[in-house]
Each structure stands twice: as C-alpha cells, then as structure tokens.
Amino acid sequence: MYNRILLKLSGEQLQGQYAGGFDHARARWIAEQIKPVVASGTQVVIMVGGGNYVRGAQIAGGGIGDVTAHNAGMLATLINAITLADVFNDDGLATRALSTVEVNQFVDQYTYRRAVSHLEKGRVVVVGCGTGRPFLTTDTAAVNLALEMKCDVVIKATKVDGVYDKDPVKFTDAVKFDQLTYDEVLANPDIGVMDKAAIGLAAEEKKPMIICDLLSDGNIVRAAKGEAVGTRLVV
Q: Where does this protein hold UMP (predicted)?
C-alpha cells in the first residue's frame, strides 16, 4: 500500500451522466471508492479539474483575455472542490477542500502545513484552483502538488482503462499498454493521456503515474495498493 497518493479527477468525470455541471450520485460513488483506501491507512490528496463548467482555453477571445479565461477555469475547479468535499463529508468520508488562490470567504487557503495536518487526521484533501497561475493545466498542477505533498504516485482516473496506442473510442484495433516510459509517451503524438508539461515534470522528478478507469469498481484501491491496473508510466 502506498503511504500517500495524488488522485486526479477531471471535471468531465464529475459531471457524470449530465452534459455539464455536477453529478451528486457520481460524487457519492467516488467517495465509496476512496473509503477503503483511507481505511487501509493511505492518505489521499485530490486535484480536481473544472471542464464540467468551463475551460479557460474554450472561452478565451471575443473580448475575454487569456488570463481572465484561465482565471475562470480555475474558479470552475474551485466549485468542484467545495461541492465534492461536501458530498464526501455527507457520505461519511472526512474531507477538507483547500484553494491555491485566496478565497477565504468560501474555503481555506492551501498551505503545505494545513494539507499535511488534515491528512494526518485521516481526512481527504481536495485542492481547487490548480497551481493558482494561468497557462498551466490541472494535470500539471496535479503533478506539481504530488511532488510538494510527497505523494508516492499520481493516479489519474479517466474514462478508459489505461493508455492505448491510439484512441480506443475511435479505433477498435487500439492496443493497450500495461507500462510505458515517459520518453515513449512524449515521443508518441497519438498518446494524449496528459499534457506534455505534466508528463515532462513527472519524468524529470521520476514520479510514477497510473492511468486507470474511474468507473471500474475497486480500481482506485487496487491502484493505491500498487496492483497492476490500467497503465503505469515510469521513467
């Protein structure tokens, strides 16, 4: 079992059955998947995306500046962080939301010490607003946070069961990889599992990553145990 993991959840995952917004049932299902991880003694840090509301790159232009657009995207992740934490707590999974941007009326600000204190009390920590800076995705923020929090591994929960040589939704002959090096991911333009900045940072710092299907029951706890699920990315 890993001591501490970073779980990356996209906004798309949190919209669940809907075309956008927040799916309470999906959030509660995720809480049930995380409970056995916490019960086993593994500490859980979550970085959330915000694509279920808005992505900065989508709204930039037409009078909206790039920085403003990225700020809007960060606020979308904050909505996910505070609502996800509420559902988790209501489901009996002790959780605290933190923001890398100061929004004290809504949520406590992220600091390393505050996050560690919550983890040591057995709480899940959900972080919103990415890195707090524009032009950096929540994938990059997830790797950055995993490094700062000394997480043993980054687990990116997606809608497919790992990394393929091409899009398995479009190509029936797509081949799944059990393991890939970061160099192989960076060299293959058909593999878009994470943005290149996130992959490059993980590679440079030798931080392992697991890409697995969120909706396969038990996947998160199996990944947290170090079992072979999805695709493992290594140096």
A: 50, 131-138
